[in-house]
């Protein structure tokens, strides 16, 4: 086994709020890079104490690549239920490697990106902020993402800020 086999897998995270700022990310993470800009289809951004997402529409953001998910989980308040971490697939046909293979194989990653979705009730969102279905907040978000085909569409044209 080589040293690289022991390295944590780099995960793609779709970011749409404070984590789109390189200074903020650098203050939190040791190892990271920005990938392409991207659009998340099926959810839209709303403002509260911090930005979050609600069903419908789309939101622009970017791909953040890191192996430090536990740090991001702490930053987003996942343990306290402030935000939930959910996996969202990339749109069909996107070549994450850039090598002409559209099967979605990437360096130790699958064909999805992580997205953090905040609880609108806890973030003071004033818009109509109901998630469909029943159950706790995390279950409703995960069910919506799975059933409504929420997807990430990377766009190479967004610059690194």
Averaging pLDDT over every residue, what do you get? 84
> Mind describing the biggest β-sheet?
6 strands, mixed
Please tell me how large the radius of gyration is.
Answer: 16 Å
First-last Cα distance: 38 Å
**Structural class computed from helices and strand pairing:** alpha+beta
Shape: globular
Considering DSSP H and I runs of 4 or more, what fraction of the residues is helical? 10-25%
H/E element string?
A: HEHEEHEEHE
Q: Looking across the biggest beta sheet, what order are the strands in?
A: 4-5-1-3-2-6
- What amount of the residues lies in strands? 25-35%
Folded structure, characterized:
It is a single chain. The model is unreliable at 95-109 and 156-161 (pLDDT under 50). The protein has 161 residues and is of the alpha+beta class. Helices cover 19% and strands 34% of the residues. The radius of gyration is 16 Å and the shape is globular. The protein has four helices and six strands.
Structural descriptors:
alpha+beta, 4 helices, 161 residues, 34% strand, 6-stranded mixed beta sheet, disordered C terminus, 6 strands
Could you write a compact summary of the structure shown?
With 161 residues, the protein is an alpha+beta fold. It has four helices and six strands, in the order αβαββαββαβ.
